[in-house]
């Protein structure tokens, strides 16, 4: 067990060191990262979502690809502008793909059977095709593809991890819901039971629901980092525990934290470690949402070298 952890730790360290970090001058660090570029024809896009990219001046050889998903009422560029992902891409040479819902203000579809099925024809299919396009266009490293998002984008992050487990190595979701919790059967439906914290399932039932999204898949699922605020009134605080149960079911973990770290990675945050592939960060006094922490997400992905 201990040597397994050591091997996993060394692998993560080597992969984060492998990402080119073109030592930036102060000027470059201070320069505001530019803007997103829209890509029109990225492949099959059944629900009409939009693709934007940010490609740094110095791309790493075989760059990692990070998919970033906005909240309802946000756009790709408003979310890009509010995060440090552009600057961090300049420093570490990875490719950013920002998805955007069909109409401004729309939430991601995390409720229809199309989106909750591998290549089922919903938003998840379009997002997967954006990633495939970026991997091909920039000679990306298919083993280093990651997904993150806030709120509706966090729900979609969990959906992408469940529906395309073969595509993503890790995910970091900020204030979302377990994959499948929002299912209504309709496109872009609002599931008030899930949002209200009334959906309770066992780890085994959650895992069965996830497995149904990609029947026959027997490979590994992406590492999952779940963030949630303990005074969230939009997506009930129960979401945190249900998400932990879902991914504990997938990874075969007990769901009880093996380690608890107060004020980690920052003030009013408690980190719970459930296993090598699952962590949760509980925000004390945070409502909706716990703000994106780009460096913690990129460290979880292995793009930045953590402590
Ligand atoms: C949710 O998880 C947290 C952290 O493990 C725990 O302190 C809390 O009691 C759990 N809440 C419920 C309702 O189970
Ligand atoms: C974000 O995470 C980094 C570690 O990756 C930590 O140093 C920083 O304090 C965190 N920021 C906040 C606001 O919690």
TrEMBL record:
<comment type="function">
    <text>Esterase involved in the hydrolysis of xylan, a major structural heterogeneous polysaccharide found in plant biomass representing the second most abundant polysaccharide in the biosphere, after cellulose.</text>
</comment>
<dbReference type="InterPro" id="IPR010126">
    <property type="entry name" value="Esterase_phb"/>
</dbReference>
<keyword id="KW-0732">Signal</keyword>
<keyword id="KW-0378">Hydrolase</keyword>
<keyword id="KW-0964">Secreted</keyword>
<dbReference type="Pfam" id="PF10503">
    <property type="entry name" value="Esterase_PHB"/>
</dbReference>
<keyword id="KW-0719">Serine esterase</keyword>
<comment type="similarity">
    <text>Belongs to the carbohydrate esterase 1 (CE1) family.</text>
</comment>
<protein>
    <recommendedName>
        <fullName>Carboxylic ester hydrolase</fullName>
        <ecNumber>3.1.1.-</ecNumber>
    </recommendedName>
</protein>
<keyword id="KW-0325">Glycoprotein</keyword>
<keyword id="KW-0624">Polysaccharide degradation</keyword>
<dbReference type="InterPro" id="IPR050955">
    <property type="entry name" value="Plant_Biomass_Hydrol_Est"/>
</dbReference>
<keyword id="KW-0119">Carbohydrate metabolism</keyword>
<feature type="signal peptide">
    <location>
        <begin position="1"/>
        <end position="20"/>
    </location>
</feature>
<dbReference type="InterPro" id="IPR029058">
    <property type="entry name" value="AB_hydrolase_fold"/>
</dbReference>
